[in-house]
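Folded chain entry
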Amino acid sequence: MNLAQVGLTLGGILLCATCIGALAVLLTWRERAASAPERWRRLILVVLPASGALLGLLLWTLLHVMLLWGQHAPAVAGVQ
């Protein structure tokens, strides 16, 4: 365990928390639309594409944090 691993892990945790918060904001924003057609429009045009991107970023971050702490962590982190 070294300082780079800990720092990158904390950064990953912060990024995951930010993604979850952004997802919550998106869903709340969708529900506050004035009418049902507007909610549907917001869902299709904004919420679904943004949610896909945020969830992809979340999974990418989790994968790389797991790789960082795996067996070959020094090779992944570039630390010799």
Remarks:
- The chain has three helices and no strands.
- The radius of gyration is 17 Å.
